[in-house]
Amino acid sequence: MPLVALFDTTKLNEVLRAAIMKTVENTMNEMIPRIKQAVIDDIGYEPGRENERPAFTASLTPHKNLAGYEVIIFDKIWLNMGGAYDNDTGVFTAPKTGLYSISTTVMSHHNSHLHCYLWKNNERMVLAFGNDFSTGTLNVVMALKKSDTVYVKHAASTEKIFGDQRSTFS
């Protein structure tokens, strides 16, 4: 006749469950800070600046003859929260990763065409066109990473842009 032994495994199960739970808890406590830092690095979050929103509006003061493929420098700054727009170069540099609403209006001069593109980094995006005192306006939402650049660049040989605060970049 076979020998049968009965064991009560209740205590063993409790010990194993506690050991597994402790291992999972320790692993999670170690992994969560690493995962959090990876997410922070990926999205460009900066502690203490989560509510700051970069914003700028600049306009063009003088009427100007534009050379071929010249970046338009909007010289009159009305607003520059965060200092991300450089009125020496005409370039906006994203201070952090996020969605940005970008707008420009360019006005052509009398008896003149005006072709201007919005550029992201070194990539031509969309065209604004004006003719004989008309305006071309662009409004786009762009996903920008920290340090991406956005600017308005003339797209033809020689044309004239109307200043007098009627051409803007925001």
TrEMBL record:
<dbReference type="InterPro" id="IPR001073">
    <property type="entry name" value="C1q_dom"/>
</dbReference>
<dbReference type="InterPro" id="IPR008983">
    <property type="entry name" value="Tumour_necrosis_fac-like_dom"/>
</dbReference>
<dbReference type="GO" id="GO:0005576">
    <property type="term" value="C:extracellular region"/>
</dbReference>
<dbReference type="InterPro" id="IPR050392">
    <property type="entry name" value="Collagen/C1q_domain"/>
</dbReference>
<keyword id="KW-0964">Secreted</keyword>
<dbReference type="Pfam" id="PF00386">
    <property type="entry name" value="C1q"/>
</dbReference>
<protein>
    <submittedName>
        <fullName>C1QL</fullName>
    </submittedName>
</protein>
<feature type="domain" description="C1q">
    <location>
        <begin position="49"/>
        <end position="170"/>
    </location>
</feature>
